[in-house]
Amino acid sequence: DQQVKQNSPSLSVQEGRISILNCDYTNSMFDYFLWYKKYPAEGPTFLISISSIKDKNEDGRFTVFLNKSAKHLSLHIVPSQPGDSAVYFCAASARTPLVFGKGTRLSVIA
Amino acid sequence: DAGVIQSPRHEVTEMGQEVTLRCKPISGHDYLFWYRQTMMRGLELLIYFNNNVPIDDSGMPEDRFSAKMPNASFSTLKIQPSEPRDSAVYFCASSLRHLQETQYFGPGTRLLVL
């Protein structure tokens, strides 16, 4: 059973607009969440993280929001740029190895 | 630092052959992880090591898969015999001190078993 779910396999956004990528989890013990970005033929690279004691973390154009009651987190990218086109993975941990979602492919159209 | 290094980057082999994937983690990192990525299952953790000791291999799909870490700078993932369903991208990752820390991934090995 998938503990981390990214229900949208793909997303297309116009350059300059906001991209919102969503992630749901089922394990209430998860207390640390991360987003990774992956370009073709490369390994995933860390993007941003959030601890369960926070509900928001911001790093430049990237903001992650955590809603613990809904077991939901989201990644906002503002403004979106063509270079943001990649696959985004959500991951979670309960002081255990990371559990990854299946990823969402973001396409930013110029 | 050069980051996590994996070799080969691509491997094409025939069913029944032995395949060995190699990984050099970032120097000083205590944890090493092996993942497999497929369209159907996404990124799956196969096994991880802490200070060269295998801690959890529950993700290893079958006895055909084995992994070793003879020293802090080298690990192998071996498939013997290989099967077409093993075709996937295999990633190695390492992290510094804790399981929850950021993991740094290698570029992956794309394996195709014919």
Describe it.
The complex is a heterodimer of chains A (110) and B (114). Chain A is mainly β and 110 residues long. Chain A is 0% helix and 55% strand. Chain A contains no helices and eleven strands. Chain A has strands at 4-5, 10-14, 19-25, 32-38, 45-51, 56-59, 62-67, 72-77, 86-93, 99-100, 104-109. The radius of gyration of chain A is 13 Å and the shape is globular. Chain B is 0% helix and 54% strand. Chain B contains no helices and eleven strands. The interface between A and B is medium-sized, with 21 and 19 residues.
List the helices and strands and how they pair.
The complex is a heterodimer of chains A (110) and B (114).
Chain A lengths: L3 E2 L4 E5 L4 E7 L6 E7 L6 E7 L4 E4 L2 E6 L4 E6 L8 E8 L5 E2 L3 E6 L1
Parallel strand pairs in A: 2-11
Antiparallel strand pairs in A: 1-3, 3-8, 4-5, 4-9, 6-7, 7-8, 9-10, 9-11
Chain B lengths: L4 E3 L2 E4 L5 E6 L6 E8 L3 E9 L2 E4 L8 E7 L2 E6 L8 E8 L8 E2 L3 E5 L1
Parallel strand pairs in B: 2-11
Antiparallel strand pairs in B: 1-3, 3-8, 4-5, 4-9, 5-6, 7-8, 9-10, 9-11
N-to-C series of helices and strands of chain A = EEEEEEEEEEE
Report Rg of chain B.
13 Å
How widely separated are the two ends of chain A?
Answer: 38 Å
Helix content of chain A: under 10%
How far the N terminus sits from the C terminus of chain B, by CA atoms, comes to: 36 Å
Q: Beta-strand percentage of chain A? A: over 45%
Q: How many helices of chain A does DSSP assign?
A: 0
Structural class of the helices, strands and pairings of chain B? Answer: mainly beta
The pLDDT mean of chain B sits at 95
Strand element count of chain A: 11
Mean pLDDT of chain A: 95
| Low-confidence region ranges of chain A | none
* Beta strands of chain B, count: 11
SSE string of chain B, helix = H, strand = E?
A: EEEEEEEEEEE
The coarse silhouette of chain B is globular
Oligomer: heterodimer
The gyration radius over C-alpha positions of chain A equals 13 Å
**Most extensive chain interface and residues per partner:** A-B, 21 and 19 residues
* Main beta sheet of chain B: 7 strands, mixed
